[in-house]
Give the backbone structure.
Amino acid sequence: LALGKPVLATKSGGSEMQIHDGKNGWLVPPNNPIALAEKISFIASHPQMISVMSKNCHAIAISNHCKAINCIYEEIINIQTNNNI
């Protein structure tokens, strides 16, 4: 998704916060290999969907992503330091 491509993922671990089923990727229920296989088959038989859905994916530079994560860590450290944790 960060590279501008639609993603196939399970509805767990927060993926559903970034992936909107049918818009910028596909979501399947967790622990459901049949649903996963069916979705893979669907994607394989509709390859044009990838280019269409790629328009809804926002590519980000890895360096920007790393900077954003670093800011989060710095905020956590500052909070812990200020609270003497």
User: Anything to note?
Assistant: The longest helix spans residues 62-82. The two ends are 36 Å apart (CA to CA). The CA atoms of residues 78 and 84 lie 10 Å apart. The longest strand covers residues 7-10.
